[in-house]
Amino acid sequence: MSDLSTIRSEALGAVSAAADLAALDAARVAVLGKKGSVTGLTKTLGAMAPEQRREFGAKVNELKSEVEAALEVRKGTLSSSALAAKLVSEKVDVSLPTRPEGQGSLHPIGQVMDEVAAIFGEMGFTWADGPDIEDDWHNFTALNIPPDHPARQMQDTFYLPSRADGTPVVLRTHTSPVQARTMLNKNVQKRLADGGSLRIIVPGRTYRIDSDATHTPMFHQVEGLVIDRATHMGHLKGCLVDFCRAFFEVDDLPLRFRPSYFPFTEPSAEVDIGCSWKDGELRIGAGDSWLEILGSGMVHPNVIRNCGLDPAIYQGFAFGMGIDRIAMLKYGIPDLRSFFDSDLRWLRHYGFSALEWPSLTGGLGR
Ligand code: PHE
Structure pTM? Predict the structure, then answer.
């Protein structure tokens, strides 16, 4: 019996003396573990007479519960003091200044697309998209460039393996196939039949086999298309003059419309903006030089017909502009290839704040 009371006082003593959770667990193992002191007592029961075993067994069980309860209480005390100690040692000083964080910036291509969209958005254009992997019909045939037409050679095309049904496929060489995709859209055709108009811009990626300081195999264009019953060449001119003056932020920027040829427009014009060179530096505005920035024209009746509309009723204009090129001109970026190098130092220098959306009232390129 004295054995029992010694074990009891030792066990309870060890529990209350445990200074932290690890020591408490060691005390638990020493008492209730496989080789623990109380566990040892239960092992002696087998050798006892039944009467004695019942009596002693009940006492051992009582002791076990008592020790378990003491462990539980001590554990509660120790964990709350551990938490309190942690709260004290890990105090956060909210008055300290924040650590400087790297801020992302917008790539000039994305910025210029947003600027272009802001300007044309004010003129009632909406943004349209099409696939980069385009079928030969949308990229060429619909646009009045039939198979074997020499104009197919003007665009150094990446051809892809044909689709399972034999459809020839290319990486689109321009954004013009989206003209066809949009005119063919049934909702658009219904809107036109109801007397409405179609005005879209198509900023996106385009591909040609070409690579030097002013050409990359992947580049960007923005297409424009207006179709209704009355839009004429005067609207084309006015629209592009307004756009270029707003985009380059030069109010009296001179534009030159040069007769040109595209299979999908008639008449066609290439558009140059005025500029001058001083000490090797380019200045956009009135001067003695010209820079070509886009192709344009009145949509060819064959294109309108190919897209399911009657050219006797509908007409309009289209244009296509190199986004990379106008970005280089506006922001003085000397090498086109640097756009696609993903050099963080370059991006920090030429990038734009992601939080300032270009607008005609707030300012475009800030
Ligand atoms: N798609 C032509 C090109 O890539 C540009 C263009 C578009 C010309 C629309 C006229 C009308 O060169």
Answer: 0.73
CATH of the domain spanning 108-350: 3.30.930.10
Rg (CA), the chain: 40
CA 213 / ligand 1 centre spacing (Å): 21
Give me the DSSP letters along 193-234.
HTT--EEEEEEEEEE-S--BTTB-SEEEEEEEEEEESS--HH
Q: Does the Cβ of 206 fall within 6 Å of ligand 1?
A: no
Q: Which two tokens stand for residue 257?
A: 């419309």
For residue 285, report the distance from its CA to the centre of ligand 1, in Å: 24
pLDDT tens-digit map of 23-44: 999 999 999 988 999 998 888 8
Copy the structure tokens of residue 2: 């004295």
Residue 299 and residue 314: Cα distance in Å, rounded?
A: 10
Q: Whose Cα sits closest to atom 5 in ligand 1?
A: 320
Ligand 1 pocket member 176 (CB < 6 A)? yes
Query: What amino acid occupies position 85?
Result: A
124 CA → ligand 1 middle, Å: 21
